[in-house]
Amino acid sequence: MNLLAIETSTESCSVALVHGQEVIARSELAPRRHAELALPMADALLAEAGLGRHALDAIAVGRGPGAFTGVRLGVALAQGMALALDRPVVPVSSLAALALEAPEDEATILAVIDARMGEIYAACYRRDGEGGLVALDDERVCPPDALVLPQAKAWNVVGSGWATYAQALRGRLTGELKLADGECYPQARHVAELAVREYQAGRAVAPEQALPVYLRDKVALTLAEQGRVTP
Length: 231
Fold this sequence. Notes:
6 helices; alpha/beta; five-stranded mixed β-sheet; 231 residues
């Protein structure tokens, strides 16, 4: 199959193309430049594979949670391309895509994105042994010191939430910390990997049904609230 994946929910802008058994990708850490970069990246990948857009079977997208503007942009790009091509969309959790940045071992994975405003987006997973993930809890947004985690013997923690709130998160872990990487971001290549499984399971949707996931409605703090939040 041929599937194009877009992931713009964090500071990293990335696009990936599944072409048969091959996955090729472009990624750049480029805050506030996603709108400028995403479509040229997509066109470059299609040109590299020798494909036109009409050869695509589906469009996949990291549907959040993440930065409001980035999530909206990614979903809008995926919807627009899918509508123009009359193709379905495969929405994929950006936290699940982030979790695939963790090592391939038996440790429980905590995927955690800095949500600003003193909060994090978080979810826990384990690998299913077949290249996919099993979710161990629901995606949520909360202060890092209020995060409730399942019991686990060992943990791999990935995502920008660790870079900002390592001390608070370390105190929430219930077992050995094997790896912690705060420089990881959700990547389109992992969105693509998960999307292929979703597509093959019949879980692609019409473009208008591919909705962003924000987990919260509020995008800014009041002045009083800003004074209570530690930078």
